[in-house]
Amino acid sequence: MEITIIHKSEQDVHFLVEGVDVSFANALRRTMLTRLPAMAIDEVLILENTSVMYDEMLAQRLGLIPLTTDLESYNLPQDCDCEGKGCSLCQCTLTLEVEAGDEEVVVYSRDLSSEDPKVNPATGEIPLVKLAPHQHVIIEAYARLGTGSENAKFQPVATVAYKYVPVVSVDKKKCDQCGACVEVCPKQILKLDGKTISTQNTLDCSLCEACMKECEPGAISIESKPDSFLFKVESTGALPPEAIVETAAEILKDRIGVALDFANSL
Ligand SMILES: [Zn+2]
Q1: How far apart are the first and last CA of the chain?
Q2: What is the distance in A from the centroid of ligand 1 to the CA of 71?
Q3: What CA–CA distances, in Å, run from 144 to 77, 115, 123, 174, 243?
Q4: Residues 128 and 204 in one domain
Q5: Within 10 Å of residue 186's Cβ, how many Cβ atoms?
Q6: For residue 85, how far is its CA from the centre of ligand 1 (angstroms)?
Q7: pTM of the shown model
Q8: 143 and 52, same structural domain?
Q9: In angstroms, what is the span from residue 82 Cα to ligand 1's centroid?
Q10: 94-131 per-position pLDDT tens digit
Q11: How far is the centre of ligand 1, averaged over its atoms, from the C-alpha of 116 (Å)?
Q12: How far apart (Å, rounded) are the C-alpha atoms in residues 94 and 106?
C-alpha cells in the first residue's frame, strides 16, 4: 500500500491510496465517520433562559457545536473508571452566561467558556440565540467523547469521501479535433493543443463521462484503476485532518486484529 498526500491544510487533506481494494477503502472511510471519537456537548443544565428559544432547541444547538478534542486526556465514558457517571477524565464542563443590555445581542459559540483550554468550540462564529434587550441565558454544559455511530454530532469529519482514480485516454487515430469534449468537460481535464487533444490534471476528473457522450467518433475512453483511491477528508475542527486519518487507521488495525484472533480461535 502506498499513500501520497496531494493537498493538506488546517481543515482538510486529500491523499491517494494505491494497492488496496474497495472494501479496505470503504472500511477506512467508515471508521473515520463512525468509530473515531470526538468531543461534543451531551448534557445541558439550563439555569436561566428568558430568550424566545425553547430550552430543548438551545440544548440541541449547543450539542451541534464542533469542539476541539484531546483524545489523550479523555476516556470514552464506557471505558472510564467512573463507569460513565461523569468525572474529570471523561467529562468537561463549559459555561455560558450572557445578558443583553438595552440593545439586542447575538450569543455566539465563542461566549462559551471551558474549564479545559484544550476543549473549546472549533470556531467562535456559530450563532446560538438572539437575545432581546434584558433577556439572559445562564447555562452549564457537559461535553464528553462519543462516536458517530452513537450520534452524528460526535463525527470529527464534515466530509470523508473517496473516488476511483480516473484514467482518461484519447485515441488520436479516431479524434477529429472538433474540440467539443474540451467545451463540455466541467473540470477542464481536456485541452486542444494545436491539432491534438491532450489531458491535464486528470485526478480532478469526476468520471461524469460527458466528454465520452459528446465525442462522436468515440475517441475518448474513461476507465478507473481498481486498486487506487483518492480520499478527501475535511475536519469539523475537532481534530487535525491528518490525526483523523492516522487514528482511524489505528482503530481499523485493532479491529482487524481482534477479528483475526477470533477467526484463529475457531
Ligand atoms: Zn469518568
Answers
A1: 29
A2: 14
A3: 7, 13, 18, 61, 19
A4: no
A5: 11
A6: 6
A7: 0.84
A8: yes
A9: 4
A10: 999 999 999 999 999 999 999 999 999 999 999 999 99
A11: 15
A12: 18
